[in-house]
Design brief:
By secondary structure, the chain is α+β, with helices and mostly antiparallel strands. It has one domain (22-146). It is 38% helix and 33% strand. It has four helices and seven strands, in the order H-H-E-E-E-E-H-H-E-E-E. It has helices spanning 2-14, 23-35, 82-94, 98-115, and strands at 38-43, 46-50, 55-60, 68-74, 117-122, 125-134, 137-146. A seven-stranded antiparallel beta sheet has the order 1-2-3-4-7-6-5. Helix 3 crosses helix 4. The chain is globular and about 45 Å long.
Length: 151
């Protein structure tokens, strides 16, 4: 027992103890690497990314529960890279193929243009999109949401 305490004291002094796990930070790092988006605001289970001038990503980490990632764009016409960004982020978080997520998002956006909001189940996740107009302009948001927890 004394040896174990001594070993712990030595490792602590040398700074070689394992770092505390940060699953949300790890996931955020993978999303940033896959999308080339910059990590911005960060709280324990939420991360916002900057992805170009008018696009953002948001990551909600579920721990053992479902996680989700969304792409937001403020403007009239979606930029050409919106679908690619959403697909890469969604695949990183959910494991569902990017093209599957993009197809579902396109369907959901088309429905959201007339209904304001639409949800399409696909590949074990839910893709939901909404479209709103305000004095600030048009806002398009799509998210890939895991349906089951990982406990």
């Amino acid at each position: 027992m004394i040896r174990l305490v001594s070993l712990f004291a030595v490792l602590s002094a040398l700074g070689t103890l394992p770092a505390a796990a940060d699953p949300c930070g790890d996931l955020a790092g993978r999303v940033a690497a896959a999308t080339k988006a910059e990590i911005g605001e960060r709280i324990e289970d939420f991360v916002r990314f900057k992805a170009g001038t008018a696009m953002t990503l948001s990551l909600s980490c579920g721990g053992t529960g479902p996680s989700s990632v969304g792409a937001q764009y403020l403007g009239e016409t979606l930029p050409a890279d919106y679908d690619n960004l959403f697909g890469k982020a969604g695949q990183t978080v959910t494991g569902v193929a990017a093209d599957t997520l993009v197809d579902a998002a396109r369907k959901a956006r088309a429905e959201a243009a007339t209904k304001r909001h639409s949800t399409i189940p696909t590949g074990g996740v839910v893709v939901t999109c909404s479209f709103t107009k305000s004095e600030k302009g048009s806002l398009t948001m799509c998210a890939a949401i895991e349906k089951a927890d990982r406990s």
